[in-house]
Amino acid sequence: MRPVPSDSQDSPSTPTPDTTSLDAGQRVAPSRTEPLVATATRPLGGPLGEHAAVGRHWFWSPLRVCLLLAVLALTLGWFGKAACIQQFVNDQGQAELDWRSGRPYVAMCYSDVVPLYTAERLDRDDTFPYATSWVENEGTDREQVRYMEYPVLTGLFQWVNAKLAHAWDDVAAAGWLPGALPVAVYFNITALFLAAAWLVTVWAVARTARRRPWDAALVAVSPLVAVHAFTNFDTIAAAFAATGLLAWSRRKPALAGLLLGIGAAAKMYPLLLLGPLLVLCLRAGKLREWTTTALVTAGTWLVVNLPFMLFLRQGWEEFFRLNTERGMDPDSIYNVIAHFTGWLGFDGQLAHGETPSWLNTVSGALFLICCAGVAYLALTAPVRPRLAQLCFLVVAAFLLTNKVWSPQYSLWLVPLAVLAIPRWRLLLGWMLIDALVWAPRMFYYLGTDNKGLPEDWFLGTVVVRDLAVILLAVLVIREIYRPSEDLVRAGGEDDPMGGVLDRAPDVVVVRKPVRSR
């Protein structure tokens, strides 16, 4: 074990970050390096001591502790949503969900999983995603034929869970299982699998971090997990993205491509990770490995989607059509601009079938500009950036410039932020701010007529959330240009997630011009 530095012996309750003397294979103890963790350990005896027997417990390892913490956070998240699956008996003597008096917003328990059970026609036995259609706004000028609106794997995930809920209902009717409203059973089955996906994410982050497995605790106990793990279906793609990056870190580019391709079939954002890989592989001369990953990713996505593209094309295109025609999201920066400036150029009120062409163009162009900036950063930095740093910057840029930032999208950033900039107080502060946006959002949806909040309050918290993400991005950029301040590299490591990039020499570097004095 590394001895405790002499300065920390004088004041053991307030250790200062010190990882510079760690051996490359030695585990980082957050109770020594993070003041927040050191303070939290006081009731348990204080920071890790000089003679602590690290790694010798027969059961409890950092990974298992992190998984336990994740189970507790996910349980808290389920209780947060449980108010929306309560039932009551109506005047006709039938049981139905108790959504009276704006319960989803007052109790802040809203989850897309519940209304989608009927909205996507999953409550029927004769449906199949992308084959079943229905008419929306029938008899009006906004009448439209609709299909399942999610990518293929997410749509199939919902359909399978609905079938399991129907089977549960049948067995319950025979007296073998406890009965409940089918939608409540469906939500609980879905929540079980979503929770399992986030546990996989925690596992992958702990394995990827190597010397810093305790950083996975931030992924486990993130306030965003407690609020949004069951808001939608994003933990599935997060799990595949995290395991894909883990496979890359273990120098398995084909397996990484397979996992990223499956993740992209559930939610498109894992495809964004190929961009940082490309520029880093270009700098290190590892384009062969990147090509393998990219081709396997594309091939996997195509294999999953091809049957639906060929035989259920109209239903399969629904996801892409809706994303093209969709206006600005309430959480987007464009809605903030439109509200506070009255700039009608970003008006989100669209006529039926109208595509917000200018909004699509502006958001797409801004994202490409940000990607170009990240590429320039990767090729001009004095030391090749870590993969996690660039992945965080690209996904953050996508969310900040995109016309849609659904609240659960913030889960995408959690594993990447932890791996990119593992500063506990900073990350927990951002996560708490981001999670708290949920409260004014719910009361904004409740409406001022029902004693809800005006839009200004909600959009104000959105601005604070965006500024917090921008601050994290700025700090990541600072550490890229000043690698000596990077906590991950402080102990002599290069890039734990890098795989073939780890300690590889540079081949292509764009040097910034030096001004003559």
TrEMBL record:
Keywords: Cell membrane, Membrane, Transferase, Transmembrane, Transmembrane helix. It is found in: Cell membrane. Pfam families: GT87 (PF09594). Residues 1-23 have a biased composition (Low complexity). GO terms for cellular component: plasma membrane. It comes from the Bacteria. GO terms for molecular function: hexosyltransferase activity. Residues 1-44 are annotated as: Disordered. InterPro entries: GT87 (IPR018584), UCP010361 (IPR016570). It is a multi-pass membrane protein. The chain crosses the membrane at residues 65-89, 185-206, 218-248, 254-282, 294-312, 332-351, 358-381, 426-445, 457-477. Belongs to the glycosyltransferase 87 family. This is DUF2029 domain-containing protein. The lineage of its organism: Bacteria, Bacillati, Actinomycetota, Actinomycetes, Pseudonocardiales.
